């Protein structure tokens, strides 16, 4: 059996695809951060700010955790190697990838309320 080459790739192994050349630039790791993110918290959750640890039973979306992560990344001097991604509002489709329809409805219902009026 003859082994021909097509586009520089041997046809003897049909399961071996040539390397992809569709990326116009190398992929990088990015970071998206803004002071706005520190306003993201659940008003019905009480945080222990003194013993602020990452416990799997604690609420992960809390300002102190976000601030601690950003401080650690900065202290390790990693920010220069990261692609800085501009913050923007998430679309409903993006939110629905990780949250339920009920969660989305609660967000819509509380969007115009003050923290004191959210129950």
UniProtKB/TrEMBL annotation:
A Pfam family assignment: Hist_deacetyl
Domain Histone deacetylase, chain residue ranges per copy: 60-114
**Which portions of the sequence form the region Disordered?**
1-30, 43-64
Q: Where is the composition biased (Basic and acidic residues)?
A: 43-52
In which residue ranges is the amino acid composition biased (Low complexity)?
18-29
The record ties this protein, via InterPro entries, to:
His_deacetylse_dom, His_deacetylse_dom_sf, Ureohydrolase_dom_sf
Gene3D superfamilies, A to Z: Histone deacetylase domain (3.40.800.20)
Q: What is this protein called?
A: Histone deacetylase hda1
Q: What is the native source organism of this protein?
A: Puccinia graminis f. sp. tritici
